[in-house]
Amino acid sequence: PELAPMIRYGVRVAAVSRQGMDRTRSAGRADIPFLLRLHTAYGVEDVTARAVVDTSGTYTSPNPLTAAGLAPAADLGDRIVHALPDVLGADRARFAGKRVLVVGAGHSAANTLIKLAALAKDEPGTMLLWAIRNAGTARLGKDAADGLAARGQLGSNVHGLVESGQVDQLASFEIDDVRPDGDQVTVTGRRSGEPFTVMVDVVVNATGFRPDLDMLREIRLGLDDIVEAPRALAPLIDPNLHSCGSVPPHGVAELAHPEPNFFIAGMKSYGRAPTFLLLTGYEQVRSIATELAGDHQAARDVQLVLPETGVCTTDVGGSSSCGVPATNEAAEGSSCCVAPAPAAPPASSSCCTN
């Protein structure tokens, strides 16, 4: 209730800068208020602020379908659907009786495939294909131990659909382009290095998300070159290193940027990395708010316990393993996945205990 008078709806932040200063000017920068350009129902408005916390998320900026990270060359209109469509509700007609390709290897893809399989039972002619870029689905391990039971069940359920033949999985499929072909679309690329083409009625893009940074062009950001997350946070969440469901507790220190009193929190703080959990965002915001209130020690006293997961891979030194409760303590320096346990994480940075 205390915040209610301060919340404004129907407002889009178009740009963030410093009052009278673009990003090239440094003298006295930290003492100058931020300037936010807002688009409202009544027009354009500029407002000032002492600090800015960007929690705008990434849902409206999905990754493109192609393996190269570029959008398809042609305009595909409504033949491409955003992640997590309402398959059994408002979007039912778009999928009923259609040949559907779901692209992506994460939880959004799994949820969509499970709903589509339910639809197919009632709608004859509905055919489901699942394209993944790698040979397997690291974040959707079958029967993986997971502190979030429903999340762990996703992997088991979707792999069950593949094994039963309800979903045709196209593994190691790197998509090069998607083009309209009459009322359908032709998806071209390579499977295990060999040319491959599939024709479908509709494609669900569940390939993940990336941050929209356009509104921050005049802000001095300190982002990692790979995942576009804050530089101190990026090594903890880089999917090239691991796909564990959690990261070490972090707060204002890891989320800081060269721009004083500017922070990115929530899903957008993860940049292009997957598997963000709301609990992480809550602690991020608590730490930032405490810092802005002047309690710097409390802001850095970050305490967060996340659900553990048995879904984990790493390409840092040695092999990876997944999925079952561990009975022995992980060997130091090994790559491992440990099922839920009260023990503290091992010292090795390549060990995922979550």
Largest sheet: 5 strands, parallel
- The averaged pLDDT comes out at 85
- Which regions contain 5 or more consecutive residues with pLDDT less than 50? 311-354
Total number of beta strands: 15
Helix-strand string: EEEEEHEHEHEEEEEHHEHHEE
Evaluate the radius of gyration.
22 Å
Strand neighbour order, sheet with most strands:
5-12-6-7-8
Offer a concise description of the structure.
It comes from Curtobacterium oceanosedimentum. The protein has 354 residues and is of the alpha/beta class.
Would you give an account of this structure?
The strands form five sheets. The protein has a five-stranded parallel beta sheet, with helices on one face. The chain contains seven helices and 15 strands. The protein is about 20% helix and about 20% strand. Helix 2 (about 105-120) links the parallel strand 6 (about 100-105) and strand 7. The chain folds into two domains: about 75-205, FAD/NAD(P)-binding domain (3-Layer(bba) Sandwich), CATH 3.50.50.60; about 210-350, no CATH class. InterPro entries: FAD/NAD-bd_sf (IPR036188). This is Flavoprotein. It comes from Curtobacterium oceanosedimentum.
